[in-house]
Each structure stands twice: as structure tokens, then as C-alpha cells.
């Protein structure tokens, strides 16, 4: 932004103000993402526990999958972002540790949640909800294995160039996270969820509002890794 010096009227670039405005924008989006994660995960858990304990297989899979994908995986991806509230003060090495722990825990919970519901059914992956969940599960597994080569990218640099493990890791992670969102939205589209939300919330459309919130935080979360993947790809071709 070009501003005039109040002393002599000469014009100069105010880089500070520009970065500051961008910082505020990024921190606000980060806060919004955390609020939306809380609402979506909170409502899903309330729904899963609506009949109290013990949980049946469907409710247990909702708890495990939503905590795995929409809470732990989401926080795991955010933890590497420079503007993320709770990791901004951490050293890079500790951010990576937080990312690794959250993603391992999230992936395990999500995969177990998906498998227990599949085992509970006679015919598998016959619905769009199940099909997208299967894609998310496959990409999560690949991303987990690929994450290890990214973690040891420095040690493995002689056999695998760093970008070759990191770029696919980001792409697989983003695909897993987005397909889990699509599966979640198909889950929220089931009539038993829609009728429950119209009992506890506004008369109708609340389920769609929750889908919108889930889509919004997913979009906010994937922007940063996509920019990183793009920049890394450009660097490979330069
Ligand atoms: C990211 C979150 C979720 C994931 C990854 C997920 C994953 C899965 C998987 C893998 C199956 C078994 C599919 C099969 O073997 O055919 C399934 C079934 C099912 N899920 Fe989910 N689920 C999620 C959230 C939800 C939510 C929020 C609801 C409801 C509110 C829900 C309701 C159901 C129902 C009713 C079935 C049985 C019918 C079907 O297969 O479509 N799920 N889910």
C-alpha cells in the first residue's frame, strides 16, 4: 500500500500495514475455523449420544469418524500453519511433532470408526456416504505411510528428493480430508439426522447449515497446504 509521509508528503510503500492487515485476516479465518470445528463436532457428538449409553455401532462410528477426521485431522493440518493460534508460539520441530501425533491419532480413530460400521453391514459401500468414506479411508492410509517418508525426508534425501515425498503427502492429505467432508455431508443428509436437528434446533435447514459450516472450515484449512504444495511444485520445475 502506498502512503504519504505526514512530515514531508513524500510517498513510500507501507509493507508493515499490508502484512498486518493480512495477519489479522489470517488470524480471523483461523479463529473462525476453530469455532466451526467446535460447532460441527459438538453437534455430531450430541447427536451420537442422544439416546445415552451404550452407543450402537452407527453412533460409535459417528463419534470416532468425526473426532478422527473433523477434529484431530483438522487440528493436525492447522498445527503446521504459521498463523494457527495454539501452535504459533511453538518451534517448527514441535509443530511437526504436534502434526504427527494428531494425524496418527486422527487417522487411527477415523479408520477404526469406518471399519466398525462396515463390519456392521451386510452389503458394503453401496451408498454415496460409504463410497466417499472408502475413498477417504484409502487416501488417509496412503497419507499416513507417505507421512513417514516426509517426516524422515532429510535422512532419506539421498534416495527420495524431499519434494517427492512432501508434495504427494499434502495432496493425499487434502483429498482424504475433502472426501471425509463429502461423506460427512451425506451422513448429515440422512433423514434421522435431519429430523433430530429440527427437534433440537431451528425448524428446518439446520442440517444444511451444519454442512455449510463443515464445508467452510474444510476450505479454510486446505488453503494453506494447497499454496505450499503449489509453491513446492513450482520450485521443482524451476
Ligand atoms: C466423516 C464422518 C463419517 C465417516 C468417515 C463415515 C464412514 C462410514 C462408513 C465407512 C460406513 C460404512 C459404509 C459401508 O460399508 O457401506 C458408514 C455407514 C453409515 N454412516 Fe457414516 N461416516 C461418517 C459420519 C456419519 C454421520 C455424521 C452419520 C449420520 C448422522 C452417518 C451415518 C451412517 C449410516 C446411517 C450408515 C449406514 C448406511 C450407509 O452405509 O450409508 N455417518 N459411514
UniProtKB/TrEMBL annotation:
Q: EC number(s) per UniProt? A: 7.2.1.3
- Superkingdom of origin organism: Eukaryota
Q: Which GO terms describe its cellular component?
A: membrane
- Cofactor(s), by name: heme b
The record's annotation in SMART domains points to: B561
Q: What GO annotations for molecular function exist for this entry?
A: metal ion binding; transmembrane ascorbate ferrireductase activity; transmembrane monodehydroascorbate reductase activity
The membrane topology noted for this protein in its Swiss-Prot or TrEMBL record is: Multi-pass membrane protein
> What is the protein named?
ascorbate ferrireductase (transmembrane)
Amino acid at each position: 500500500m502506498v502512503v504519504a509521509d505526514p512530515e514531508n508528503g513524500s510517498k513510500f510503500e507501507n509493507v508493515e500495514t499490508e502484512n498486518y492487515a493480512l495477519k489479522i485476516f489470517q488470524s480471523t479465518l483461523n479463529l473462525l475455523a476453530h469455532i466451526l470445528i467446535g460447532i460441527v463436532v459438538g453437534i455430531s457428538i450430541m447427536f451420537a449420544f442422544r439416546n445415552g449409553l451404550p452407543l450402537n455401532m452407527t453412533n460409535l462410528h459417528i463419534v470416532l469418524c468425526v473426532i478422527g477426521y473433523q477434529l484431530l485431522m483438522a487440528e493436525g493440518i492447522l498445527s503446521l500453519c504459521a498463523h494457527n493460534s495454539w501452535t504459533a508460539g511453538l518451534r517448527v520441530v514441535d509443530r511437526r511433532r504436534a502434526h504427527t501425533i494428531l494425524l496418527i491419532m486422527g487417522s487411527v480413530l477415523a479408520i477404526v470408526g469406518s471399519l466398525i460400521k462396515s463390519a456392521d453391514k451386510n452389503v458394503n459401500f453401496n451408498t454415496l456416504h460409504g463410497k466417499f468414506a472408502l475413498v477417504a479411508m484409502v487416501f488417509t492410509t496412503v497419507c499416513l505411510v507417505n507421512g513417514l517418508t516426509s517426516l524422515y525426508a532429510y535422512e532419506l534425501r539421498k534416495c527420495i528428493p524431499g519434494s517427492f515425498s512432501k508434495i504427494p503427502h499434502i495432496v493425499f492429505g487434502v483429498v482424504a480430508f475433502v472426501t471425509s467432508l463429502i461423506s460427512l455431508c451425506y451422513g448429515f443428509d440422512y433423514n434421522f439426522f435431519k429430523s433430530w436437528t429440527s427437534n433440537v434446533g431451528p425448524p428446518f435447514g439446520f442440517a444444511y447449515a451444519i454442512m455449510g459450516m463443515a464445508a467452510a472450515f474444510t476450505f479454510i484449512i486446505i488453503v494453506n497446504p494447497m499454496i505450499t504444495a503449489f509453491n513446492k511444485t513450482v520450485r521443482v520445475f524451476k
